Amino acid sequence: MYLVSVATFLALSVLCSALDNGLVRTPPMGWMTWERYRCNIDCKTDPENCIGEYLIKSIADKLVDSGWRDLGYVYISIDDCWSLKNRDSNGRLQPDPDRFPNGIKTLADYVHARGLKLGIYGDMGKYTCGGYPGTTLDTIKIDAETFASWEVDMLKFDGCYSNSSERELGYPKMSAALNATGRPILYSCSWPAYEGGLPPKVNYTLLGEICNMWRNYGDIQDSWGSVLNILEWYAVNQDALQPIAGPGRWNDPDMLIVGNFGLSYEQSKSQLAIWTILAAPLIMSNDLRTISEDAKDLLQNRLMIYINQDSLGKQGKRIATAGCLEIWLRELVDGQYAVAVLNTGTDGLPKRFTTSLAQLNITGSIFGYKLYDVFEKEFLGTVKSRTGIEMSINPSGVVMLFIRPAATRHPTL
Ligand code: GLA
């Protein structure tokens, strides 16, 4: 058995305001091109995987046909490298006609007809990170109007090739310009990631007022090391980051890489568990046309999605560490909780761990609590606060529990 010190959990109510477009009261879910497809513009030799109409349509079809949309994965987002290298004669950004032969509006129509929402990418700066035309202060208005005229539903606004003062003017200006179009457009701001991600350099009160979500930190890559690096940064800086998240305004630790090449099955569960505790957007970047059944089953786990989408919208925290074990806790609506016990170790023997709800500071329910194992999809039983809860956590894996006051009904697993 391991002894853990569990920090007292303070239920502080969050009073910051969110961008007033009514969007993403729970973390957005969907799919995005970047992590998996990068700046692959070679449609001649790789027509199925290049950034273009075919990729977006074929993934949109899968989002619908394989049940993703109905679970909440509704955003399908084109990242960098979609445009031509020059603006048109009216000064507007234009998609590459070889790769998007019918334009973005027609693609948006296709996506909307299937009950999905289309995302696009821009950059507050001279160029995008991939070297395509960026949005400067004087083109913000026309670019916002162009995106709205294409009936786009989300804008990821990156920050390459600009300086801090341009970003300070540009991000709020784009927010106002999007609002002025009258079209509700989810506004995802990469601004904090370009300023080190932390206060006082980053003003998260302002971010919450002008953006719906924001990248705080560096890019995810297709490896477990990258996932560990990101989750560690969010844990170390959680006191600054946790209070700013809430309905309509989310911290974004970057895309889900589950279903790609870099994560084992255990590691895939771990990314999903920690992103869920963090109330993070669940934006996949993978190939839904060839994804394994195992990865699909994890990404479509209903209880995990239920927890991620909890209406309280409160980001969780890492509340204790014990050797290579980490305990992460998220408070949910109606006295419910989610706990993830992560084993970051590489020692081949699964780690045994015993705790109790009292140790986790979960004591409020007089009838005790029902416990569910999220990834085993199993009801474990009803426990009192002091009942010992034993578990075994695989190397680089996680055990995730859903904890619900005993007087309420079972969720559908
Ligand atoms: C930056 C962003 C990534 C992606 C690329 C595109 O690195 O952080 O998420 O959008 O640019 O070039």
The CATH class of the largest domain, by name, is Alpha Beta
**CATH superfamily grouping of the largest domain:** Aldolase class I
Which structural class is indicated by helix and strand composition?
Answer: alpha/beta
Provide the CATH architecture of the largest domain: Alpha-Beta Barrel
Q: Helical stretch count?
A: 13
Summed over residues and divided by their number, the pLDDT gives a mean of: 95
Report what the structure shows:
The chain is α/β, with parallel strands linked by helices and 413 residues long. The chain has two domains: 23-308, TIM Barrel (Alpha-Beta Barrel), CATH 3.20.20.70; 317-405, Immunoglobulin-like. Helix content is 28%, strand content 20%. The chain contains 13 helices and 16 strands. The radius of gyration is 21 Å and the shape is globular. It starts with 28 loop residues before the first strand and ends in an 8-residue tail after the last strand. Alpha-D-galactopyranose (GLA) binds next to loops.
